[in-house]
Backbone:
C-alpha cells in the first residue's frame, strides 16, 4: 500500500496547483478604513472562465476517518475553485499534476489557510478532519460541464499509519 507523505501547505509548494489564501507576512498588505483595518490584497486569481460568473457558497464537510484511501479525483476545467475554512480547523488538501496515483501530493492546511485551485487542477474533494467543518467556497456558475471525475486504479492512503499525521494535532 502506497502512503502519501504529508507536506506543509506553503505558497511555493502549492503554486503548480493554484494559490494559498492566507493573511501572512508574504502577502501584499496595506492599511485601510482610517488605519483600523489591514487589507491582505489580491490573494488568489479567481477565474470564472468564459461565460461564467463567480458565486459564493458554504460547503459543510463531514470529517474523514484516518487512515483514508484516495480513490478518486476531480477537476473543474472551466474555472477556479477557492475554499476558505470558516471553522478554524486543520484539513487535508490532496492534488495531482494528472489523475495518476504517482503524481498525488497531500498538504496539511492550517485552519487559517485557504486554497484556490487553478482551472483544471486535479484534486480530491474536501477532507475535513476530527469534526464537521464549514468552508466559504468561491467557484464558477455558468454554461458547460465544469466537473470531471476519475476513479484511481490504485488507492494511496493518507493517515496516521505513515507516521507523519495524527488526526488529533
Residues:
Amino acid at each position: 500500500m502506497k502512503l502519501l507523505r504529508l507536506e506543509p501547505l506553503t505558497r511555493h509548494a502549492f503554486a503548480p496547483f493554484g494559490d494559498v489564501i492566507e493573511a501572512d507576512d508574504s502577502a501584499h498588505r496595506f492599511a485601510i478604513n482610517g488605519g483600523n483595518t489591514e487589507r491582505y490584497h489580491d490573494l488568489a486569481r479567481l477565474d470564472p472562465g468564459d461565460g461564467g460568473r463567480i458565486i459564493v457558497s458554504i460547503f459543510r464537510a463531514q470529517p474523514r476517518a484516518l487512515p483514508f484511501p484516495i480513490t478518486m479525483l476531480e477537476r473543474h476545467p472551466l474555472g477556479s475553485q477557492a475554499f476558505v475554512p470558516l471553522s478554524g480547523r486543520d484539513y487535508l488538501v490532496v492534488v495531482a499534476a494528472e489523475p495518476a496515483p504517482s503524481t498525488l501530493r497531500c498538504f496539511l492546511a492550517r485552519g487559517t489557510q485557504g486554497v484556490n485551485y487553478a482551472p483544471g487542477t486535479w484534486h480530491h474533494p474536501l477532507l475535513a478532519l476530527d469534526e464537521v467543518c464549514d468552508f466559504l467556497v468561491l467557484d464558477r456558475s455558468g454554461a458547460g460541464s465544469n466537473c470531471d471525475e476519475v476513479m484511481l486504479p490504485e488507492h494511496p492512503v493518507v493517515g496516521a499509519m505513515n507516521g507523519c499525521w495524527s488526526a488529533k494535532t
Notes: DSSP finds one helix and 16 strands in the chain. The two ends are 24 Å apart (CA to CA).
